[in-house]
Q: What sequence folds into this?
């Protein structure tokens, strides 16, 4: 992980620095960061999980390319689950990864307190697996669907669903891509380095949280054609892409029990979602517009910035599939079994050996990209599971040491 502690005005306490320094801004983004800072904002370097060594570029696994956002890394340099966890885990002889395998349902013993079998569809036939501890991690929509599909006599509303909370409180953020077109070109290759959280908790003129401003990967004319945004006067799509700063605005959508995942009569997943808290998002867009007006370009002065053009990605409307990228909240954790599905260790209140560790545990969605929080929680639950399974502190320490050595040798 790369980042600089203390830059983000909303940063929670931490007991150590990030392992790697923040990924540097390329010149156009640095210029924008300086402009924002001059206008009184506190722009910061966003935490990024890539294996980039800027001090030793010849040794760096990451080559800082332009396809990081939304694509798998072809040189294995992204700190994602595949590279950091799965590739390492399957080196162990006691780990097996089954691909092209769909978990259809979980079955319990007659008491309903223990998952006894995991029913999997693989190569056209059904197979059954069992384990002392079962960890579900299918993403917020599919994990909820799996529990709902696993209803039985002891769990008539769905597995672990005595609370009737499974599938409810679906959240996915209100996200917008806003392109700021300037006379200055933006030749940036890796754009996702800058964030602004000054409006995260509110402002003097609006006392409610508005959200987080950051970037998407650099847009090009081909991507723009697919999204068909409004064209800036005197600009072609190609010219727009060359001159745009491509912001990603994220606002919190609130946990509404009626926004939910259910299973239709045909067995297919149904996602019901009514957007909420939209004023916060509109306010955030206005704040960005205001911040861009203050841009003080040495070549074009205040005329450099030509306008802000938006593509809204409200969940379930314009771009339904992409709209679920930040899915979370459907199997919330908490202390009260009446209002939550999971306890604080992400174990189901109603089942003794069932855990869920994906984005579904969120009780609220916050307003930042979710992956790092999902990963941090999975590591936390992993520590809990090691204790539950009786892994000794010594063996645990040795494992951690091996992990550190592996990370350094990369
Ligand atoms: C294009 C795109 C860009 C994104 N960019 C960012 C970003 O820059 N920063 C960020 O923080 N987040 C980003 N996100 C969001 C981030 O990827 C998700 O929040 C995160 O991956 C969710 O993790 P998860 O463990 O909850 O689920 P997932 O990562 O979705 O993992 C669920 C897994 O379960 C499998 N599965 C589902 N159902 C079953 C079943 N029944 N049986 C077997 N397997 C099953 C799926 O195939 C999948 O592999 C992005 C998402 C997208 C789509
Ligand atoms: S895809 Fe991302 S991690 Fe991989 S080389 Fe490109 S910038 Fe680096």
A:
């Amino acid at each position: 992980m790369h980042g600089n502690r203390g830059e983000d005005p909303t940063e929670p306490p931490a007991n150590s620095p990030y392992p790697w320094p923040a990924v540097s801004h390329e010149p156009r983004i640095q210029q924008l960061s300086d402009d924002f800072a001059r206008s009184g904002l506190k722009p910061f370097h966003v935490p990024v999980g890539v294996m980039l060594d800027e001090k030793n570029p010849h040794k760096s696994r990451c080559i800082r390319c332009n396809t990081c956002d939304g694509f798998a890394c072809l040189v294995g340099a992204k700190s994602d689950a595949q590279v950091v966890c799965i590739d390492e885990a399957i080196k162990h002889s006691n780990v097996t990864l089954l691909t092209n395998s769909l978990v259809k349902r979980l079955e319990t013993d007659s008491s309903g307190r223990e998952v006894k079998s995991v029913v999997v569809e693989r190569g056209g036939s059904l197979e059954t697996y069992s384990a002392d501890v079962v960890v579900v991690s299918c993403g917020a929509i599919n994990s909820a669907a799996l529990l709902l599909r696993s209803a039985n006599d002891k769990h008539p509303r769905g597995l672990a669903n005595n609370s009737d909370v499974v599938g409810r409180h679906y959240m996915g953020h209100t996200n917008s891509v806003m392109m700021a077109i300037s006379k200055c070109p933006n030749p940036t290759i890796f754009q996702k380095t800058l964030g602004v959280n000054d409006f995260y908790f509110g402002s003097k003129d609006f006392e409610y949280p508005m959200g987080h401003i950051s970037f998407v990967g650099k847009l090009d004319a081909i991507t723009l054609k697919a999204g068909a945004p409004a064209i800036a006067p005197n600009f072609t799509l190609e010219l727009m892409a060359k001159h745009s700063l491509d912001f990603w605005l994220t606002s919190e959508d609130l946990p509404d029990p009626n926004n939910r995942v259910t299973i239709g009569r045909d067995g297919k997943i149904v996602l019901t979602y009514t957007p909420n808290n939209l004023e916060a998002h509109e306010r955030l867009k206005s704040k960005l517009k205001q911040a861009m007006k203050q841009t003080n370009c040495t070549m074009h002065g205040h005329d450099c910035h030509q306008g802000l053009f938006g593509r809204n990605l409200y969940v379930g409307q314009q771009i339904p599939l992409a709209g679920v990228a930040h899915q979370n909240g459907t199997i919330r954790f908490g202390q009260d079994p009446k209002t939550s599905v999971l306890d604080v260790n992400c174990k189901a209140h109603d089942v003794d050996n069932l855990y869920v560790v994906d984005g579904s545990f969120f009780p609220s969605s916050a307003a930042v990209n979710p992956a790092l929080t999902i990963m941090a929680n999975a590591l936390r639950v992993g520590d809990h599971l090691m204790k539950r399974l009786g892994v000794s502190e010594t063996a645990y320490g040795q494992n951690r040491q091996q992990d550190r050595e592996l990370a350094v040798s990369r």
